[in-house]
User: What shape does this take?
Amino acid sequence: MFHVNKAYTVGIADMKICRAPGVLITYALGSCVGICIYDPVLKLAGLIHIMLPNIYKNQNDSNILKYADTGIPEMIRKMEAFGAARRRLTAKIAGGAKMFEVSGGNSSLNNIGARNVESVRQVLRKEHIPILKEDVGSNYARTLSFDASTGDAIVKSFGKGEIKL
Amino acid sequence: MAISKYEDINSFGLDVLKEIGSIGTGNAATALSKVLSKKIEMTLPQVKILDFNKAIYELGGPETIVAGVLVQLYGEINGMMLYLQKLDFINIILESLMGKRIDDYMDLDEIERSALIEVSNIIISSYVNAISSLTGITINLSVPCVCVNMLGGIMNAPIAEYGYETDKLMTIGGAFSCEGKELYSNLILMPEIDSLNFLMEKLGVSCE
Assistant: This one.
């Protein structure tokens, strides 16, 4: 298992990149999606925690890590700057749940998780990065950790134990 | 004199919000006390403007398991109210209403969940009613829904809802204690920025 002292925490609308033996962790993804991208040769791992699908409403928002369509390319660019090769990169994703079943009100809450996942898939397809494994949807929060030495992602959720991606 | 960011609000505006929180929480505490036939006290309500990650740590940390009841406000004011409670407080509700206790969140069944939603709905409605009659603003409430899970995941709801407008959350609220015991039970109102401006205008307060 992971050693806590080596784990770097990735917050909401945040991104971190590390080399082996580092571990990246992001806590309690609800409708947000965590995207792990890995270069197995360099053992270089990147993890980003996005909260919204596209920036389109907000072109001048400086916080580009909030959105899937601006955050993921930014992480890939940074990883390439560290020497990662595009053709070696693979992705694993988790999150995009629907935490509340809202009826009435004028809410976009009901599908924000699904829209996030959809946008993440689209962006990764456009960047030619295959999604190896995923754990998305349903109605519970997930904590995602990503080990740079192995490329393994572990998803932990309340009452559901741990699964390895 | 509208503001476009929560953090632009001036100290007078904050005081007004604190007062609103105080009236809302006070009414909610009275209602809760009646439902449970127990002495309920409230902490001094606070208005906080925090960025997303900080707000979650402030409320107990992302992986803390809580029961969150969410109601959306719409009409003249848009926003959300969340009532967050931990097992100790859930047990007080279940004991007074149904005469039983649970040892784990997993033991919450359909009836107990619905008791939880009902009590939370009463609390939230009395909070909103108090604001509504104070300001003369019509506020509609959505049907409440509950989620028992990690706090971070629950807080994704307001964060995703307001994420396009802001990098911060404004929380107006307080906590309850029951018969002298400090319990985890947080009632928070999260208004949209436009609604905040409307509310201030209605009260004749310049918040800039």
Notes: Residues 11-36 of chain B form the longest helix (26 residues).
